[in-house]
Design goal:
Blueprint (H helix, E strand, L loop, with lengths): L2 H14 L5 H19 L3 H18 L6 H19 L3
Length: about 90
């Protein structure tokens, strides 16, 4: 799964109400934009750092502004992206 699929999932969870705050939704997309910018710059270390930041943000909001269901789905996807990038460092 890549960034586009992750973005689509975030969009779907916002539309379904699993991400209940518009600000949290926007913050998630901004963090994903940072990841994509680092990918375009071919800066793998920054990609991993930004993905960790995204993962922390999802974890901090799990069960609060992001439903458990959505967070439990997003966290392994983000972890998988981290693993795939980190193994190429």
């Amino acid at each position: 799964m890549g960034n586009n699929e992750l973005r689509a999932k975030i969009d779907a969870y916002y539309k379904s109400g699993d991400i209940v705050s518009e600000q949290v939704y926007k913050n998630l997309l901004e963090k994903l934009d940072q990841v994509e910018k680092a990918v375009n710059e071919k800066n793998s270390e920054k990609v991993v750092d930004f993905l960790h930041d995204l993962l922390r943000y999802v974890s901090e909001n799990k069960g609060k502004l992001i439903s458990y269901r959505a967070a439990e789905d997003l966290q392994p996807l983000i972890n998988n992206l981290i693993f795939n990038v980190a193994k190429h460092l």
